[in-house]
Design goal:
alpha+beta; Aminopeptidase; 5 strands; about 20% strand; globular; acyltransferase; Diverse_Substrate_AcTransf; GNAT_dom
Length: about 170
């Protein structure tokens, strides 16, 4: 099977959004609850100061998915900073449609993201993986990823809109 991994362009965003929606379904997130849209992705990824980078995996038309898609996977990542380690990259999503898994597409997407970060002087890649997906945890471990929850006891927290708004209201700036 042939495939290419290339930088995402604005014309690919409809397909990226389709894949984002597939992930939402897997994690039982109602699609109508997503704050992301094609327009938001275009503004944040291709505007004056892009907030993320994205690469897509594409197969030739003769190898398209059962539904007729040629964009069959993607990775989306942002650049962040860690006071202990310096510049690092945070991979928000790495996804390959189920019918195309097992063909090293995910590994290639990961490698391309790593190369983009390395070329810019970034020294580590971070991501979160659901405890409900042990196969994905093992997949990352096979390629040398360290599970910080196991080795260092780190936990990932999030603060959503209502609480974030309340915290901001308490600011004295």
């Amino acid at each position: 099977m042939g495939f290419v991994v290339r930088a995402c362009t604005p014309k690919d965003l409809k397909d990226v959004m389709r894949l984002v929606e597939e992930i939402a379904v897997i994690y039982n997130v109602p699609v109508n609850k997503l704050a992301t849209s094609v327009e938001v992705l275009e503004k944040h990824g291709f505007g004056e100061k892009p907030k993320f980078e994205c690469f897509v995996a594409e197969v030739p038309p003769e190898q398209k998915s059962k539904e007729g898609h040629t964009i069959i996977g993607y990775t989306l990542f942002t650049y962040t900073y860690n006071t202990w380690r310096g510049k690092n990259v945070y991979m928000d999503n790495l996804y390959v449609m189920p019918e195309f898994r097992g063909r090293r597409i995910g590994k290639t997407l990961s490698s391309v993201a790593a190369a983009a970060a390395w070329e810019k002087g970034y020294t580590q890649l971070r991501m979160h993986i659901s405890a409900d997906k042990p196969e994905l945890i093992e997949y990352q471990k096979r390629y040398g990823a360290e599970n910080l929850t196991e080795t260092e006891g780190w936990n990932l927290f999030r603060i959503y809109n209502p609480v974030l708004r309340g915290m901001a209201a308490q600011s004295k700036f």
